[in-house]
């Protein structure tokens, strides 16, 4: 059931802006759409990534992590870089597209991961669209990343080296990656506050960077054949994914998902894997396990109740599934945390 936010949605605070500037991004202008009523924002608590609107940030000398949730309010900003950086903005809801504009380039949209390599002095603009900004953004100093790759005998992705040599900004809309999306949603979800949260965000930043680099090098070449989804097909696949996330306790038949998507089972399976990189059953299992992980870490609910909430009739079955996925039992997960 939808409910109103308890407090008005606020613009990015001083800490958020300072962290961005520390990582080479100076916000020149930002704000909500004049039509947006941020004091009466309505949130849909059924959404898989529901969280209280706001802005969170973490940064060190080489990279920064930024979480943006403007609720249902359109948000836009213009920024300038003070050093060479790469920016990866991951949308946590694949059905919502953002618009990006770099100098001397046409406007581009992304509903997944927008990857930009920006030399010093680049000016860029981002507009969330009417659904608001719901994203996790990683900013990394390219010189540090290239040095790190050299130290570990790893090749720097060509898109980074090419942009650095030509001193021109580059935009690429990365193909969907289930691992990147799941990591972004974990970061986006609110966590309990403690004195060592910075270690959590540092670890997640490196994990996300690793997943992004692996996704980047796995991108198909420009001349490689790749089936393109039209807008109707893409929206249908997103509806199926949302349905899975909304009702984890029910093992819905593939025919029901196919009816929801308006396509046959074979096409649904193929397109779902193309969008998310995994099968429908693997997607559902991963969502269940990630949610179990959050509940074990962030609540005091009994393990039996968590298992039952996620569709397991027997606690032993839940424990076996959790151990198979994470390598440890739910009990040990809670003790170690």
Overall strand count: 13
- Low-pLDDT stretches are 1-8, 34-50, 222-226
Per CATH, the class of the largest domain reads Mainly Beta
Shape: globular
Note the gap between the termini: 32 Å
Number of helices: 12
For the biggest β-sheet, the strand order reads 4-5-12-7-10-13
Q: How large is the share of residues in beta strands? A: 15-25%
Largest sheet: 6 strands, antiparallel
Provide mean pLDDT, rounded: 81
CATH superfamily of the largest domain: Jelly Rolls
Can you tell me the number of structural domains? 2
Structural class comes to alpha+beta
The radius of gyration over CA amounts to 20 Å
Query: What is the chain-wise order of helices and strands?
Result: EHEEEEEEEEEEEHHEHHHHHHHHH
Oligomer: single chain
Helical content class: 40-55%
In the CATH hierarchy, the third-tier topology of the largest domain is known as Jelly Rolls
Strands, helices and their partners?
Elements: E1 3-4, H1 14-22, E2 25-32, E3 42-43, E4 54-59, E5 63-69, E6 75-81, E7 85-91, E8 98-101, E9 108-110, E10 113-118, E11 123-127, E12 134-141, H2 142-151, H3 158-166, E13 170-174, H4 178-188, H5 197-217, H6 231-246, H7 254-261, H8 265-276, H9 280-298, H10 303-309, H11 315-326, H12 330-336
Antiparallel strand pairs: 1-3, 2-6, 4-5, 5-12, 6-11, 7-10, 7-12, 8-9, 8-11, 10-13
């Amino acid at each position: 059931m939808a409910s109103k936010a308890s407090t008005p949605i606020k613009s990015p605070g001083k800490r958020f802006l300072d962290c961005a500037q520390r990582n080479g991004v100076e916000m020149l202008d930002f704000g909500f759409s004049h039509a947006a009523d941020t004091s009466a924002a309505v949130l849909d608590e059924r959404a898989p990534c529901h969280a209280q609107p706001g802005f969170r940030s973490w940064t060190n000398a080489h990279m920064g992590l930024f979480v943006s949730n403007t609720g249902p309010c359109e948000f836009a900003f213009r920024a300038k870089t003070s050093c060479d950086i790469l920016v990866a903005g991951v949308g946590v809801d694949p059905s919502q597209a953002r618009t990006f504009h770099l100098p001397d380039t046409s406007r581009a949209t992304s509903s997944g991961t927008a990857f930009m390599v920006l030399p010093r002095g680049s000016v860029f603009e981002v507009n969330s669209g009417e659904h608001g900004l719901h994203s996790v953004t990683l900013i990394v100093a390219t010189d540090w990343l290239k040095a790190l790759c050299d130290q570990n005998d790893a090749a720097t992705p060509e898109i980074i080296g090419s942009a650095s040599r030509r001193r021109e900004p580059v935009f690429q809309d990365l193909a969907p990656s289930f691992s990147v999306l799941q990591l972004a949603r974990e970061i986006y979800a609110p966590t309990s506050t403690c004195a060592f949260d910075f270690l959590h965000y540092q670890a997640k930043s490196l994990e996300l960077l690793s997943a992004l680099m692996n996704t980047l090098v796995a991108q198909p070449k420009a001349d490689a054949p790749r089936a393109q989804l039209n807008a109707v097909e893409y929206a249908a696949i997103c509806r199926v994914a949302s349905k899975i996330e909304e009702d984890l306790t029910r093992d819905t038949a593939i025919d029901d998902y196919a009816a929801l998507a308006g396509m046959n089972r074979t096409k649904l399976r193929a397109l779902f894997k193309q969008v998310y990189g995994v099968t429908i059953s693997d997607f559902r299992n991963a969502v269940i396990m990630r949610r179990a992980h959050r509940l074990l870490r962030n609540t005091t609910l009994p393990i039996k109740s968590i298992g039952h909430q996620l569709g397991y009739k027997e606690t032993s079955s839940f424990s076996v599934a959790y151990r198979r996925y994470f390598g440890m039992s739910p009990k040990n997960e809670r003790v170690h945390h």
